[in-house]
Amino acid sequence: MYTAGKAAQVTLEMERYRLDILGISETRWTRAGRIKMTNCYTIIFAGEESEHQRGVAMMMSQKTQKILMEWTAVSSRIISARFFSRFKKATVIQVYALTNEATDDEKDEFYDQLQATVDKCNRHDVVIVMGELNTKVRDENKDMEEIIGKHGLGSRNDNGNRLCDFRSINGLSSQERASHTEQPTKQLGCHKTGRHEIKLIT
User: Fold this and answer.
1) Domains in the chain: how many in total?
2) What pTM was estimated for this model as a whole?
3) Rounded CA separation 26/99 (Å)
4) d(CA 108, CA 164)
5) Residue 6 located in a structural domain
6) Residue predicted with more confidence, 132 or 149
7) Domain housing 72
């Protein structure tokens, strides 16, 4: 996204796939802000103070920006936005997790921030967590089928264990979009608790 003209290219892809909201990781934009583009798309973003590293954003159509109630730049790796709906409001959290090679302290800080962000959501909202979580959650799924599901890629790494813990704490179960003969391209967890209905998209 830091490259000139990249944002305009992304809006073309949104129009092509008829998307109303798109989460973006590794934008490499600095600070936090809101930009309205000439083609009526709006971007909200969060980044580092001065470094062109990391960064998250959400790009939304004109229809979606009209129902945007509020948004929060949590860090250069987490941004959240709340949207109005006549039936049930929704909070969307876009994340960009650290790679598996990061230190335990760095990973702990990220997941603590993510959990705190989820905990602050309105208890009646549908909460959607999406983005780049840099995980492998398979294939050691014994006694964890409800959390991991039946399909996955590679062997579970430390980031995968942390994601499984996050799913378990929040009561998420995995519902993968794949047949028994296909490798999944998306993993979705959905669970209704007393506080939230939470969805996880990676």
Assistant:
1) 1
2) 0.82
3) 12
4) 14
5) no
6) 132
7) 64-201
